[in-house]
Amino acid sequence: MDKNKLLRISLYLFSFLIAIEGAGHLIASKASKKNGPEHVKPEKRLLHSLRFENTLLRRKIEALQPKDYILVDTSRNVLYLHKGKRMILRATISCGSGSILTDSAGKREWVFETPRGEFTIQSKYEKPTWIKPDWAFIEEGKPIPKNFMERAETGTLGDYALGFGNGYFIHGTLYTRLLGRNITHGCIRMGDRDLKTLYETVPIGAKILIF
Amino acid sequence: MHLSGSLLLIIILALFSDAKGISASEIDRLFQENRLLKSEVQLARTPNIYILFDLVEKKVQIKAKGVALREFPVEKFNLAGTPIQPKPFILQNKSALLKPKRIKIKPKKIGEDALSDIPAFEVKDMPVRYRFDFEDGIHIYVRPKPEGGISTLLDLLSSLKSYGITMPVGTLWNALQQKTYTELSLYLSAEDARLLYWGMPEGSRGIIYAFTAMDR
User: ipTM surpassing 0.90, yes or no?
Assistant: First the structure.
């Protein structure tokens, strides 16, 4: 028998054996399918369903992310304005001092902290008037006025104010040299130029993330 | 010859591809990831800030609405005790040897300059060595990366205290009370440690993601 013939017969034999083994696998897999779908390669199905579910969950998280938002870093006193994936404004600001004020009777206490979390711009004002709350008089050692109009103060909040709830505002300041420090009563103070940009860019309903 | 060779190759490839197994660890990892993502969806739906301690990627993230607001790389970490599931835990207490105290404002006298004294409470006042106590007996010790003599010595003492006292005693005490006990030591840069202390107020929620084999 010549070598080529021998080689050919060996290959045919080997292919035949492989084919028989393959057929065996096929029959075994069909038999296992008959036992119920949950027993067919459960790991593989589990793997696919987990991957699919995890992809859906990631998309759910992405859908919760605001597209355009104001980001306030209270630790570094910086405000960023994001439009889509672009950051269009970076401004030095002043956030809450975290200090505590108690009235002389010891009944009321204020913690001057900028609130953290997600908020919404609820109002916008040009040339805002500050209606001074009780703590402002207590801090200054002045009696709390009974007449509402005595609480009104103009100029203190700068040219614009953007309210984000519970009496908190993003507003201007007379003390620009203190920008970059935690010195406010909880509001966010900005320089005039940056405040103007923010006021003109951000609509009511815009999201703020403060951390 | 050619036909039989091709046939052979196809059959071998088919068999190999069919025989390719799915590792159990991959399924476990996907399960853990699934729980992590479900927990994050739960937190991202709220308006609150939350923290993700991702020990797999060795990073800590301050997050809100799924947005990573700040990220700190973890230099190294040690995790011991009861395995943690990636679910939201409430931060119950923050403690430090020198815990920063809020400044109490003294009301001004008439005529006094309102800006003569600025009572600021800032990041530089935050500690670099502290402990976060979460519910379910989870304690996170944040330490700065040891650099130089004193910090290395302090780190050694902290490790001795942790492995020689708090871990064994805490584990035994909590086991007797049928409670869980986990200790995580996180090493961050000093600046990041201060920022993390600032960024995580008591009452906020955190998820710890440490990939371990788990019950499905």
Answer: no
